[in-house]
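Task: sequence design from structure.
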């Protein structure tokens, strides 16, 4: 079976080069601060001792929860005999109880009912485990987020709960998730396929209009969130397959990143990979994200360059960018889309998480939507990795868990995701002069094949039907083939689409 998978990977170039507080925030801060004052102010009266004791009990329960539980065994999900039904029903009942308790706790936190919230959190920490089933694990991180929300940012306990992973830990967690789950690969390969087809279409048009005269055969991708650059090795490989030593293709990537070190590492990684393809010219330019001057300068430079390279295909890549980085500031979003439109790119690729978690919504509404989404993500990891896997623990702690806690605790200057439904993003794009493009049948076939390759626990001959797999991952074609979504069970996780200027 490994030979079959390798052939299919090569067929579609799927090899990788992975070598703000809310409106009531000030009121909440004043109420929460009384808890912390009890811990550090010796002049407080004895009435505060009770709250102090509850907090320390809570932290003790959390410390116990953080330790691995050797008695937790992974339940089989594909084959269940008759003796397992009672156990499954019991587990299901416990899971529902945990979710119910978590929602009661979230309501208490939102209402600033500190005493009830602390009691419920203590009970939650007694019932969950980072090495338990998917419900226990996801509830554990939501409990952490709620516990931190009760505290002020000046509290050392807040820092203890909200401690961010190091850059190395974050990179490893991202890499692990990229390797074992189709989540990020679906986003990258679907966007790359659309970019590749747009480039091929323009090449054909240029060859016909120039009567077979030589054209520049140049592709310029502007990536608004290049991150670690994992998206681009498969595109480099695919372009190389369409080039030759005598007829080379030029690929230039302009990528925005979070910091200089990450951009330098991304450039080094991609340049090193591209050296293996002699028929491809490669260039990378990194720009720090968040600078409006960088954006304006880049657009001016690209417009000037387009006058020199008339045959260069320009593609704008908005994979995990609009929701994560721009939705906090609508004007910034609008300005960015206007600037992109001024470039008149051949294609704009857009991939985002689906949800209904915009900042103006109430805390509880965002909480519920996030709980549904991350519960699906944690459940899907059970299909990718065994329960005792250190990779899974790393992914959930340093990637998904970090997102959960950040969603529950943020200031105005923090970058958080404000995820919208596909229909709302579609409206934003259309209002800024973009029209949706139909995604090709190749994109759909590639997405389905990716699920076959990346579903670790399912024999390849068990895939039957258009959306059928023996895992919970699904591919959905939507909006008259103008969008493709990746889902877990019936929950949409990601949606990919492509756009052109109209």
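Answer:
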């Amino acid at each position: 079976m490994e030979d079959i998978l390798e052939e299919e990977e090569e067929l579609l170039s799927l090899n990788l080069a992975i070598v703000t507080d809310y409106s009531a925030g000030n009121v909440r801060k004043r109420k929460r601060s009384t808890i912390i004052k009890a811990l550090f102010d010796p002049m407080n009266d004895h009435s505060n001792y009770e709250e102090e004791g509850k907090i320390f009990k809570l932290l003790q329960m959390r410390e116990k929860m953080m330790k691995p539980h050797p008695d937790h065994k992974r339940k089989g999900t594909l084959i269940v005999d008759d003796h397992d039904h009672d156990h499954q029903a019991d587990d299901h009942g416990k899971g529902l109880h945990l979710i119910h308790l978590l929602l009661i706790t979230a309501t208490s936190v939102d209402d600033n009912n500190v005493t009830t919230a602390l009691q419920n959190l203590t009970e939650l920490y007694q019932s969950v485990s980072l090495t338990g089933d998917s419900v226990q694990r996801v509830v554990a991180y939501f409990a952490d987020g709620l516990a931190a929300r009760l505290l002020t940012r000046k509290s050392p306990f807040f820092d203890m709960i909200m401690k961010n992973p190091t850059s190395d830990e974050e990179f490893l967690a991202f890499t692990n998730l990229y390797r074992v789950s189709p989540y990020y690969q679906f986003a990258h390969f679907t966007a790359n396929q659309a970019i590749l087809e747009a480039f091929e279409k323009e090449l054909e048009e240029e060859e016909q209009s120039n009567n077979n005269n030589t054209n520049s055969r140049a592709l310029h991708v502007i990536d608004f969130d290049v991150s670690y650059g994992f998206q681009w090795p498969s595109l480099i490989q695919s372009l190389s397959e369409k080039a030759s030593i005598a007829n080379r293709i030029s690929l230039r990537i302009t990528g925005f990143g979070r910091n200089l070190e990450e951009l330098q590492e991304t450039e080094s990684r991609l340049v090193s990979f591209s050296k293996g393809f002699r028929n491809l010219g490669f260039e990378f330019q990194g720009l720090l994200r968040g600078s409006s001057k960088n954006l304006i300068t880049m657009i001016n430079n690209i417009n000037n360059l387009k006058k020199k390279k008339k045959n260069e295909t320009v593609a704008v890549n908005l994979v995990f960018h609009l929701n994560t980085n721009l939705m906090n500031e609508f004007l910034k979003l609008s300005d960015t889309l206007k600037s992109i439109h001024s470039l008149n790119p051949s294609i704009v690729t857009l991939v985002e998480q689906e949800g209904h978690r915009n900042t103006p919504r109430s805390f509880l509404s965002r909480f519920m939507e996030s709980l549904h989404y991350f519960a699906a993500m944690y459940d899907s990891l059970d299909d990718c990795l065994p329960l005792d896997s250190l990779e899974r623990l790393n992914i959930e702690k340093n990637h998904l868990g970090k997102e959960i806690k950040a969603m529950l605790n943020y200031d105005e200057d923090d970058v958080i995701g404000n995820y919208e439904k596909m229909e709302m993003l579609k409206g934003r794009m259309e209002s800024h002069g973009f029209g949706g493009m139909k995604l090709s049948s190749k994109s759909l076939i590639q997405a389905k094949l990716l699920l076959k390759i990346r579903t670790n626990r399912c024999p390849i001959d068990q895939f039957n039907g258009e959306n059928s797999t023996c895992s919970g991952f699904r591919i959905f074609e939507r909006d008259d083939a103008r969008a493709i979504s990746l889902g877990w069970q019936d929950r949409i996780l990601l949606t990919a689409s492509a756009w052109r200027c109209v």
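The chain has a mean pLDDT of 79.
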